[in-house]
Amino acid sequence: MDWGSNLWDQHDVIERHTQSGLEVLERYVKFVKERAEIEQSYAKQLRTLCKKYSRRGIKEDQEINRLTNQQAFQEVLNELNNYASQREQLSENMTTTICVDLTKKLNDLRLERKNYLSDIKKSQQNLESTYKQLEVSKKRFEKEWKEAEKAIQLTEKVQQDPSSTKADVEKVKQQEFSRIHISDVCKNEYASQLQRYNKEQENYYHTEIPTVFNKLQEMEERRIRMLADGYVQFSETEKQLLPNVNKCLDAISTAGRNINEKQDTAVLIDQYKSGAAPPADVEFEDYSQVIKPAVNENTAQHVPKVRIKLFQKKNKPSSLTDFSRLPSDKRKKCLQEKIDELNKELQIENEKSEALQKMKGVYEMNSQLGDPSSLQPQITQNVYIIAHLKGELKKYQTQLDEVGGGPGIQNQISSSVSPSSDIYDFDEDFDVDLPIGQCTALYDFNGDSEGSVCIQMGEQLSLMMEDQGDGWAKVQRSNGDVGYVPSSYIKYI
């Protein structure tokens, strides 16, 4: 079944039908584009939600995060943020694999259809032109034949007139011959034009129209197949991301299963146990006795008093880092643990400082290996951290000395700081932009807009500011360049 032989006389129907098919394809492209926009908006809202409920940098939260149920909630937020990244990836994949591809194919089909319809129109115009020439030759032949008939009648009339001379007869015969000759020429031309038109008409209806209509049919079938493949791609694009989505959901389930309620309730005991014994029983005082029994003075002074304390909301003390609410032994232990922890951090930062200085020296000796200035942001940050850790160590050591424990650490701190850090002087007003995390570039970004920065896929970046809900995050490259990039182009580490 083909259009050429069965719909040869339905030009208008075929033209409307193929136009309607292209409109359906165009509507589907718009549908997928809007679906991608919904996914993008959904991902943005998820990120905003995660940011709203993510609590970072507060000391109280750091203590609370020792609880497995609190840690699990942070894991839920982290995985939901990763889930949002998958929705953003789905939006981008739908745009590139469906919208962009089908839009190009749609434009090609429109041009192809236009050319086919143009070929039909040219063939139709050619047939109409041939028919006009046929009509002209037919009318001319009709006119000349009438003139020839008049010439024949005039010759007969002259020949029958007794008064006509031989010269008169010869003259009219000559005119008759001329008119008949012209009439024969027009007749032959008319016959030729008729033969040409019939040939053109046969070619038009039996060759040109069927050929073009069959091409339009083949084009329409390709369009339908494109649309069908687009429907399949719509589903497959999301299926490809399901494993990653399931990983996020599985990680959330794992976070829930890893919660240890016994451990969480024990943490409260470890944190707030005072070590004091409950008050002793109140002794019975017998007032019926006239003479009261002698009471040891020391005992009387230590008779416990019963106090009922109601729980009530109080403002927290201005400093929670001195562990002042704990008993002396407990406080010493906590302060010593904090000092040990800070010493480990200081050692790590000192090693990092030495490595940066060595790398800077190598770059200065051989600039082909790298730019020494690119290390300056890391060196500045490292020195600031070392100075901060020294201040914290001094503060905690002072508190430990106050409760009578621990050797002085001033000499230890001084000896552990790298020589390169001594050339910097810090005070409480020191202000510097520090990275809040690390991230990896998922895609290339040219950074040609104002305030943005160029990044390359796989590049390790320092995260300076998270997405504030506008779809952009601030990052710093290893060479010191700082700027904004689309938040969907990076992955937090």
Specify the biggest β-sheet. 5 strands, antiparallel
Order of helices and strands: HHHHHHHHHHEEEEE
Low-pLDDT ranges: 290-320, 408-431
Number of beta strands:
5
Q: In percent, how helical is the residue content? A: 55-70%
Count every helix, treating DSSP H or I runs of 4 or more residues as helices.
Answer: 10
Would you kindly provide a written description of the structure presented here, covering whatever features stand out?
The chain is mostly helical. The protein contains ten helices and five strands; from the N terminus they run ααααααααααβββββ. Strands 4-3-2-1-5 form a five-stranded antiparallel beta sheet, with no helix packed on it. α2 runs antiparallel to α4 (68-160) and α4 (68-160) packs antiparallel against α5 (166-257). The protein is rod-shaped, with a radius of gyration of 49 Å. Mean pLDDT is 82; it is low at 290-320 and 408-431.
Which helices and strands, and how do they pair?
Blueprint: H1 3-6, H2 11-53, H3 59-64, H4 68-160, H5 166-257, H6 261-272, H7 297-301, H8 328-365, H9 376-402, H10 410-416, E1 437-441, E2 460-465, E3 472-476, E4 482-486, E5 490-492
Antiparallel strand pairs: 1-2, 1-5, 2-3, 3-4
Helix pairs in contact: 2-4, 2-5, 4-5, 8-9
Briefly say what this structure is:
With 493 residues, the protein is mainly alpha-helical. The protein has helices spanning 3-6, 11-53, 59-64, 68-160, 166-257, 261-272, 297-301, 328-365, 376-402, 410-416, and strands at 437-441, 460-465, 472-476, 482-486, 490-492. Helix 2 runs antiparallel to helix 4, helix 2 runs parallel beside helix 5 (166-257) and helix 4 packs antiparallel against helix 5 (166-257).
